[in-house]
């Protein structure tokens, strides 16, 4: 058994399957966009903004995350946001990304989905052409809003469907169970989109069951509270249902008091198909590689476990079987 150094972790071809583009808005870029757009942020400078990133729970974070997203106004802003993230991916050895964007965060401020998607898609295309990073975009509904609002969002996005391949569900989990969104997920499935949902981050194991049974998701985002139901853990193992786990997010939002208490490697050893992801890297202190490093340092992750996590990220992705096989061959070389 040996422990992986950071260069080894970087060299593993990895996919990132759970990150919110709005959550990669670094304070420096937020201030630059605010200036470009003539907005005054309620913080004196970058340091004051970073100092505010102390969260007691998910809602504390979401309040700042939505406030920060207000700096995003133009097509170029969405481009710059996405491009900055892709450059971080290149530096971390991320070869494929399936990011979320939250259209309702912006339509409510009068920014059409077409404008958001134009900037995001242009950057993703450049990511493929210039950095060799492939991508599939996920449109995520805000669960604190109504299902009717989600349906209106899907309808506005349908004429732009060439830009995204799946729908997701995020924002305030407690009190907004998956069953609230059964109809809109059925409509999305009917239209041919894959489905994923945040469940079991702060919410109970039953929300994971609802996401599986009612929303018919192909991955669970977070899912770490599955351990509260041994029967559910067995189901996740037997169905090889991927969990997109976000270690730094979970400790920064106090889902786990300390990284040494995180359950990701226990789940991996039990046979659950877990992956490592960064969620909102600008707010939680690190991109994908930093999450691998944090798990290695706190939980003594082995090389074999790191390779298994990277492998899971490829096989849980929306890449075709052929594309997955290519990355798995490269992963075997790097391992
Ligand atoms: N960790 C998270 N949970 C729920 N909604 C989110 N939106 C952005 N990050 C999120
Ligand atoms: Zn998330």
From TrEMBL:
All residue ranges annotated as the Adenosine deaminase domain in the record: 13-332
Pfam families in UniProt: A_deaminase (PF00962)
Listed transmembrane segments: none
An individual GO BP term: adenine catabolic process
Requisite cofactors: Zn(2+)
GO molecular function, one term: adenine deaminase activity
Cofactor note as given: Binds 1 zinc ion per subunit.
EC numbers, comma separated: 3.5.4.2
Catalytic activity: adenine + H2O + H(+) = hypoxanthine + NH4(+)
Superkingdom of origin: Bacteria
Residues in coiled coil: none
Sequence positions that bind Zn(2+): 18, 20, 198, 279
Annotated site residues (Important for catalytic activity) in this chain: 222
Alphabetized UniProt keyword annotations: Hydrolase, Metal-binding, Nucleotide metabolism, Zinc
Matching InterPro entries: A_deaminase_dom, ADE, Ado/ade_deaminase, Metal_Hydrolase
Example of a GO cellular component annotation carried by this entry: cytosol
HAMAP family: Adenine_deaminase
Function: Catalyzes the hydrolytic deamination of adenine to hypoxanthine. Plays an important role in the purine salvage pathway and in nitrogen catabolism.
Family of this protein: Belongs to the metallo-dependent hydrolases superfamily. Adenosine and AMP deaminases family. Adenine deaminase type 2 subfamily.
Designated name of the protein: Adenine deaminase
Species of provenance: Halopseudomonas pachastrellae
Lineage: Bacteria, Pseudomonadati, Pseudomonadota, Gammaproteobacteria, Pseudomonadales
């Amino acid at each position: 058994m040996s422990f992986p150094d950071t260069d080894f972790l970087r060299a593993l071809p990895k996919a990132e399957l759970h990150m919110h583009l709005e959550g990669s808005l670094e304070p420096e870029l937020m201030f630059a966009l605010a200036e470009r757009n003539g907005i005054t942020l309620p913080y004196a400078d970058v340091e004051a903004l970073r100092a505010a990133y102390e969260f007691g729970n998910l809602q504390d974070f979401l309040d700042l995350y939505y406030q920060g997203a207000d700096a995003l106004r133009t097509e170029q802003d969405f481009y710059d946001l996405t491009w900055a993230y892709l450059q971080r991916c290149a530096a971390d050895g991320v070869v494929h990304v399936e990011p979320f964007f939250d259209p309702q965060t912006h339509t409510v401020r009068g920014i059409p989905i077409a404008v958001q998607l134009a900037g995001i898609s242009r950057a993703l295309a450049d990511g493929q052409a210039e950095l060799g990073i492939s991508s599939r975009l996920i449109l995520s509904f805000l669960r604190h809003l109504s299902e009717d609002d989600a349906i209106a969002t899907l309808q506005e996005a349908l004429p732009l469907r060439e830009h995204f391949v799946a729908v997701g569900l995020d924002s305030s989990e407690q009190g907004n169970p998956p069953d609230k969104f059964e109809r809109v997920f059925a409509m999305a499935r009917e239209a041919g989109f894959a489905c994923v949902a945040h469940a079991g981050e702060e919410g109970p194991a039953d929300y994971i069951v609802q996401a599986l049974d009612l929303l018919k998701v192909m991955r669970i985002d977070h899912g770490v509270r599955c351990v509260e139901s041994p029967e559910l853990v067995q189901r996740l193992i037997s169905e090889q249902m991927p969990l997109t786990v976000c270690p730094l997010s979970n400790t920064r939002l106090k889902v786990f008091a300390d990284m040494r208490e995180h359950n990701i490697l226990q789940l991996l050893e039990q046979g659950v198909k877990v992956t490592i992801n960064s969620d909102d890297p600008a707010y939680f202190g690190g991109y994908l590689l930093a999450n691998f490093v944090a798990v290695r340092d706190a939980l003594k992750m082995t090389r074999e476990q790191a390779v298994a996590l990277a492998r899971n990220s490829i096989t849980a992705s929306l890449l075709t079987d052929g594309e997955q096989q290519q990355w798995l061959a490269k992963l075997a070389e790097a391992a």
